[in-house]
Design a protein that fits this description.
The chain is of the alpha/beta class and 253 residues long. 17% of the residues lie in helices and 23% in strands.
C-alpha cells in the first residue's frame, strides 16, 4: 500500500509517510463481542517519515470539563489501551459528522443514526454536516466487509464497524498537524438495532477504543436484548480519556 495522500483544506497535497500507517477496525457482530483487526503498512523506504509530535494532553472540552458524576458510578478506563499515537481524542470542535444521505439511506436508518449523534453531542460538541469531504467522522449505510479470522475461517456476519486512519493537514504559513478521521459502517437493519449500533460505534469514534464489562454501558462488549442509553460510566471513561496525552492534534516536526 502506498503512503496516504490527503487533500488539504487549503488546496495543498500532503503525503503522510509515517513509518507505520495503522488502521484499526472495530466491528460488531450479532451475539458476539467486537473483533479487532490491525493492518500495519510500512511507508516507502525511499521517503523520509516525519517526526511525529510529542505526546501531550489537550485541554478538556468545556462540556466534559463541567461533567460531574455525583453518584460516583465509576468507569472502565482500564479497558481502554493507548496506541502508538496515544489516545484517539479530538482536539478541534465541533467534531464534524457526515450521515449517509444516498438513496436508500434516508428515512428510519438516517433518523436512528442522527439520534445517536445528538445523544453524544450532549457530552462532546458534534455537528452534522452535508459534505463527506469536510467530515471528521463519516457514517455510511453499508454492510461491513467479510473478514477471515486468525485461524483462516470466515468471520461471522457483523452489523457495524469503525475504522480510523491518520493524515496530516497543512495550511499556508502554518505547520502540518497530525490528525485522524473515522469511518463507521452500519448495516441497513431494524431501527432499534441501527440506533444501538450507531451509539456504540460513535463511542469508539469519539475515543473509547475499548469495551465495558458492564451491560448497562453503551460500550459493553456484546449486544444485549435491551440496548442501553449512554451511561454515567461511559462519560466518566470518556472524560478520563480526554485527560490523557496524544500525538493527535499537534504540529508535525
Amino acid at each position: 500500500m502506498s503512503p496516504k495522500i490527503v487533500k488539504q483544506a487549503s488546496g495543498l497535497i500532503v503525503s503522510l509517510c509515517v513509518a507505520l500507517l495503522l488502521v484499526l477496525i472495530q466491528s460488531t457482530g450479532p451475539n458476539s463481542g467486537d473483533k479487532v483487526f490491525l493492518d500495519a503498512t510500512p511507508a516507502l523506504a525511499s521517503q523520509q517519515p516525519p517526526q511525529l509530535p510529542t505526546l501531550k494532553p489537550h485541554p478538556l472540552p468545556d462540556v466534559l470539563a463541567l461533567w460531574e458524576d455525583a453518584a460516583n458510578n465509576g468507569d472502565y478506563f482500564e479497558q481502554v489501551q493507548p496506541l502508538e499515537v496515544g489516545y484517539l481524542v479530538w482536539s478541534k470542535f465541533p467534531v464534524k459528522v457526515f450521515v449517509d444521505s444516498s438513496e436508500g439511506s434516508q428515512g428510519r436508518w438516517a433518523t436512528a443514526v442522527r439520534l445517536a449523534v445528538q445523544e453524544w453531542a450532549e457530552y462532546l460538541p458534534l455537528e452534522i454536516v452535508g459534505d463527506a469531504e469536510q467530515a471528521d467522522i463519516t457514517i455510511l449505510r453499508r454492510r461491513p466487509p467479510l473478514r477471515m479470522t486468525a485461524d483462516g475461517k470466515l468471520d461471522r456476519a457483523r452489523s457495524a464497524e469503525t475504522r480510523y486512519e491518520y493524515y496530516t493537514r497543512a495550511s499556508v504559513n502554518s505547520p502540518a498537524v497530525f490528525l485522524h478521521r473515522q469511518k463507521i459502517l452500519i448495516s441497513p437493519l431494524a431501527e432499534v438495532v441501527v440506533a444501538a449500533a450507531a451509539r456504540h460505534e460513535l463511542g469508539h469514534a469519539l475515543g473509547i477504543w475499548g469495551h465495558s464489562p458492564t451491560e448497562t454501558d453503551v460500550l459493553y462488549y456484546s449486544q444485549v436484548r435491551n440496548p442501553p442509553s449512554i451511561s454515567a460510566r461511559d462519560i466518566n471513561t470518556l472524560k478520563r480519556i480526554y485527560q490523557q496525552p496524544t500525538r493527535l492534534g499537534w504540529p508535525v516536526n
